[in-house]
């Protein structure tokens, strides 16, 4: 107890409250009240310096509330001192207070990287998960000459610097996906004339040599998901089979996902992979598959085939979909699946999507038995997503519309909503967001119609933004411009 024996505390005539009871009381107090209590006496000063108290406060005030912890940088909580745990607790609550403010206040704002070629624009941005929360991946497209530049930025230094750069000019380019597992050496999968698996040498002094190839798959494929040592692709064209690959053996697919009730050219919009199942969101359906390979009933050449265990069909076709599992302390400690947030902007009969973001939740199946194999009789989620809210988010004709969704429940988007600050206008953009909190029980979800953004991070009077990325743990937001420049906001 860091110098305060329990028996000595319990025998104190001025404070007869047993220490364990005092800790039970203090954990329910606001942090600022605890800081005030620290100044009232030497005894309370000593108690509020206990490591056990700050471990308890970090858990109850931060972790159990599913609040990200900034500045952790991969350190293990079990090896941190009382003062370090106190600092992490205060930093996490300060970031959440600023982040959830109707107008979050950036502690730092910096513009960096502007290509020298004209007609260059940012077409992709994403923070690398983990890895000390310091790396941002961007892709810049230049029209003349036609090329794509993939870059990795160190954003933890005062002025972000490019530490890795790869220029793609020859052959088709179909995009990249980032590995959601920070422990995997494979960081990026790129779609071109072949599917390339790349890692990054963060210690390489020459940025043009820092992207290191790890392997490749011949043929043109769409890359949709990279998770650990698993890659998920889709063949373009009428067949459109979805294939699951093991990066340790790229000679052939490990499994094919086929839905006989659909046209297989119905493109994939989002995917989420777990131990023995995958959730696939297409333009109008959401499907659940087992990823355990089994021998085909009818012997065929090629990889084993998996058919949907369940599926749900939406009434309208989606224009864009963003899907993310939401961190849940209680679900993780009960070995239950975490809820999955889905944000959809549906298409319309016009050349632009509808002016509404639809928020759905895939709720965990109460009958699911953890530890048993996922099957038709043991599904981890209910098949039908639960509608939670609709959020007004107007987009003009040809206007930029992009959504980023974080695992701690932050939805962040670009739209053309200008009425609140500029009035009716044919130009202008808003960087807005909303914190979503979902429960595992679908019956406890309260429908909200015509909800509004709860946070407005920034507005501008022109249409220069194209893409947005965020890292909830570090409190960073990055916005890409049509000029190829990037603006970084830090809120921690």
From TrEMBL:
Span of domain F-box: 11-57
Highest taxon, organism lineage: Eukaryota
InterPro entries per the UniProt record, alphabetical: F-box-like_dom_sf, F-box_dom
UniProt cross-references to Pfam families, sorted A to Z: F-box
Signal peptide: none
Protein name in the entry: F-box domain-containing protein
């Amino acid at each position: 107890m860091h110098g305060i024996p329990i028996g000595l505390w319990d025998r104190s005539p001025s404070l007869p409250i047993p220490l364990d009871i005092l800790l039970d009381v203090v954990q329910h107090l606001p942090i600022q009240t605890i800081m005030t209590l620290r100044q009232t006496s030497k005894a309370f000063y000593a108690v509020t310096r206990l490591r056990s108290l700050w471990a308890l406060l970090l858990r109850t005030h931060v972790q159990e509330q599913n609040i990200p912890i900034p500045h952790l940088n991969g350190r293990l909580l079990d090896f941190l001192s009382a003062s370090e745990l106190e600092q992490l607790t205060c930093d996490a609550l300060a970031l959440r207070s600023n982040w959830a403010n109707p107008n979050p206040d950036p502690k730092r704002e910096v513009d960096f990287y502007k290509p020298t070629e004209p007609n260059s624009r940012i077409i992709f941005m994403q923070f690398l998960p983990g890895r000390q929360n310091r790396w941002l991946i961007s892709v810049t497209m230049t029209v003349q000459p036609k090329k794509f530049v993939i870059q990795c930025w160190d954003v933890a230094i005062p002025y972000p610097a490019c530490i890795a750069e790869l220029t793609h000019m020859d052959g088709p380019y179909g995009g990249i996906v980032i590995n959601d597992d920070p422990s995997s050496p494979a960081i990026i999968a790129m779609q071109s004339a072949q599917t390339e698996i790349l890692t990054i040498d963060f210690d390489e002094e020459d940025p043009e040599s820092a992207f290191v190839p790890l392997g490749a798959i011949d043929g043109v494929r769409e890359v949709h998901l990279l998770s650990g040592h698993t890659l998920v692709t889709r063949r373009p064209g009428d067949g459109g089979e979805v294939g699951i690959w093991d990066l340790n053996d790229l000679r052939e697919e490990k499994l094919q996902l086929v839905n006989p009730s659909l046209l297989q050219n119905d493109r994939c919009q989002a995917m989420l992979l777990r131990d023995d199942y995958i959730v696939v969101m297409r333009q109008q359906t959401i499907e659940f598959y087992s990823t355990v390979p089994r021998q085909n009933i009818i012997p065929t050449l090629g990889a084993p085939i998996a058919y949907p265990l369940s599926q749900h069909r939406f009434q309208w076709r989606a224009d864009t979909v963003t899907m993310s599992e939401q961190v849940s302390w209680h679900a993780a400690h009960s070995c239950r699946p975490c809820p999955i947030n889905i944000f959809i902007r549906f298409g319309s009969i016009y050349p632009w999507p509808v002016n509404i973001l639809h928020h759905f939740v895939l709720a965990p199946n109460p009958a699911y038995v953890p530890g048993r194999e996922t099957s038709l009789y043991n599904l981890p989620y209910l098949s039908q997503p639960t509608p939670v809210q609709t959020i007004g988010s107007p987009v003009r004709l040809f206007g930029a519309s992009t959504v980023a969704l974080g695992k701690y429940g932050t939805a962040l988007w670009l739209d053309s909503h200008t009425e609140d600050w500029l009035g009716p206008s044919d130009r202008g953009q808003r960087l807005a967001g909303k914190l979503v909190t979902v429960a595992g029980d679908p019956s406890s979800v309260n429908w909200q119609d015509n909800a509004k953004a709860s946070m407005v991070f920034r507005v501008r009077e022109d249409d220069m933004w194209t893409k947005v990325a965020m890292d909830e743990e570090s409190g960073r937001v990055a916005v890409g411009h049509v000029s190829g420049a990037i603006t970084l906001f830090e809120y921690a």
